Amino acid sequence: MKHLKYVASFVVMMGLYTAAFAQSAPQVSPAMQQAEPQAPAPKVAPPVNPFPPVNLKNFTADSPTTAEVDAFLKAIWGYDENRIWSVAAILKTKAPGVAKVVVFVADKTQPKKGTQTAFFITPDGKHAIADNVIDFGPKPFALDRAILQDRADGPAEGAAGKDLLLVEFADLQDPRSKQAQETMNKLATDFPQARIVVENLAVNEGHPLAMRAAAEGACVAKQKGNAAFFLYEQAVFDKQDILKPDSADSVLGAAVTTAGGDPKTVAACAATPAGKAAVVAADTLAADIGAEQTPVIAVNGHLLPVDQVKYETLKKIIAYQAGQDGVVVHIQPTLTNIQ
After folding, report:
1. Topology adopted by domain 143-324
2. Which tens digits make up the pLDDT trace of 225-277?
3. Phi-psi bin for 107: left (phi > 0), alpha (psi -120 to 50), beta?
């Protein structure tokens, strides 16, 4: 599985805006401009709407509606109380039924530094496309959430219920997955309401031992339980730098021993078709929901690059997504916000 720059999440894709208002917004006529003040003016709050006036000529597509686009963006961006936006255009394109949506975006604290972004809506109105594809609508993650609730059955910790389900897609040979474990451990502490599931993948051609490591982990979980798996996982990550073909037996065997298992029994289990089935199922699940890199976390279906989002922002997104799905969570204080 190659490491892509973006994942199927408009939080990341549409957070990297491409053009400033000054490059694309209508020019303000001199008559509308304010005269230079002769004396210092009192400070006033930023305008409620800092965006250029909406031009109805830029709404040529029959669908989606502005309200539908707003609902979609609220589902994705609503966690950020300072982010504001304006739907500037919904345009027909050369492709029959495909609409181009242009959105102006700004921060309440710096409204004059707004930018713009654009994406496309498919003719059936079900998908939005920018660097990749995401479901469109007020509940864009609902389908993937249902898929994960049904099929994400890897080793788990935390709550028994799946109302708030965090699914991590990782690769035991991937250095970024190793680095992400500190974040995953924090999430387990800060969100006791969440059920956290690990799905170890083995689709990166550059990681030849990922399949064996993942299969042995699945066998450890089957034979010794979920708690044993997490001991195994950490032990593998701790020795990841020396996990090579000529040292696999010793590194993985030591990890199994750390987890309380028997290396020979676990290795034999992992070598069988049944032992590999859990890894194949994880690979298929990742492909089905568009998890195109590791490490990725699916927050009730909302895919996020767990190692590329600031931790406090990640917590806000999780709490917001939970609220969107009717789950009330309270963000736990951490050393970074008890100041």
Report:
1. Glutaredoxin (3.40.30)
2. 999 999 999 999 999 999 999 999 999 999 999 999 999 999 999 999 999 99
3. beta
